[in-house]
């Protein structure tokens, strides 16, 4: 006999759950498309662009409502192994393709490939761009920032914060959210939302006080907190030429790249626990050492005439690279010394902290890898009978790094580096140098946005789609994509038999 819920309906399982959750996410994507229209009262002459958002928003929301009827009013069972990854991947693909429609309808992008590229760049907070920022309407510029906000915080996290669905909570962790701030995941999601929204609000006011206009301040605050480098100016942050603006942006980027659980540690007043955290130390160590080395390179090789200019430029670009934000205060990094470019590549690979809006391998994994190297050397030089506890300080507690954690860190680091090699190889096949190809694809995979001038509006579809794939798997941290592909292949194979 089939178990029935209180409403007399069979519990939703398997395919029904997958379709139902996709329906909920369709409704969320429809709401996302409506957010940019909020600024039209301030720019009424751009009202002609409203249908570019309204039409796809209504269509996808209606489709979503129909799909979610599969689980409406029904008890929700568990997703089978791998189905959670399938839901996440399909959700992001849905957001990418539907989100590209306003760029096409408005004429901001000339081709479907360019529109998908711009959308994925926003959702992944990579912020490589193929649109002409100087001629873009305000509503399109703000839409790009909306993509940053939704993509940076996470589509599933936003859904979880609005819908208390205990069975759907496991999607939360698959999207890359590791630490629970509170025992209840829905409450955790709402707390994260409130923290980041507060940062955006305070950041907007701080940038206005530093000399930015309200529109520029709002967009740059969203970009910095979401660690995405979409700017409202063609010259990026460097166009403002303001030390005050750069200082505020550095603070906001650091906040965006910090583990949200560590924000809560600070808010609770546990400063010592924050300072002892292994990931926090690695994060600020990379920023400090990277800035010192970069300043030395820029000054000694004559790129910057004075020590102050060298430090100012180095600090901003290093923070932007480590947090994987991608904002710049210089026109291009392509003309920098090779040593400086190599340092930027290393920092982009390391990336920001786990459970932040940034990308890269993540500082937690880098810290574990560094400790593993030390533990290996220590074990080789000490007596076999010595017993060592491999523990680290994390979120105010001493935690043991077990074999499963080590294997996961090593596996992810290896797959990440292999992905860089493959992407770089494709770029070199298209005729670009190894150095530029490595820089560009590392930036895409790390969701940074620094560019060597390869992924542009004039680039070939091969370059743009390779970059799109890099941004996509980089944002979802590779493994959910691999799991979803494996799950799909097995289903197809089963049907074939």
Briefly summarize what is shown.
The protein has 21 helices and two strands.
Helix/strand layout:
Elements: H1 14-34, H2 50-68, H3 83-99, H4 101-106, H5 112-123, H6 138-153, H7 155-162, H8 170-174, H9 185-209, H10 214-225, H11 243-256, H12 260-267, H13 271-276, H14 278-300, H15 307-322, H16 338-350, H17 363-381, E1 391-394, E2 397-400, H18 403-429, H19 434-445, H20 461-475, H21 479-496
Antiparallel strand pairs: 1-2
Helix pairs in contact: 1-2, 1-3, 1-7, 3-5, 3-21, 5-6, 5-20, 6-10, 7-9, 9-10, 9-11, 10-11, 11-15, 14-15, 14-16, 14-17, 15-16, 16-19, 17-18, 18-19, 18-20
Describe the structure.
With 497 residues, the chain is mainly α. 63% of the residues lie in helices and 2% in strands. It contains 21 helices and 2 strands. It has helices at 14-34, 50-68, 83-99, 101-106, 112-123, 138-153, 155-162, 170-174, 185-209, 214-225, 243-256, 260-267, 271-276, 278-300, 307-322, 338-350, 363-381, 403-429, 434-445, 461-475, 479-496; strands spanning 391-394, 397-400. Strands 1-2 form a two-stranded antiparallel ribbon. Strand 1 (391-394) and strand 2 form a beta hairpin. Helix 14 (278-300) packs antiparallel against helix 15 (307-322), helix 15 packs parallel to helix 16 (338-350) and helix 18 (403-429) runs antiparallel to helix 20 (461-475). The longest helix has 27 residues, at 403-429. It is globular and about 65 Å long. Residues 1-7 have low confidence and may be disordered.
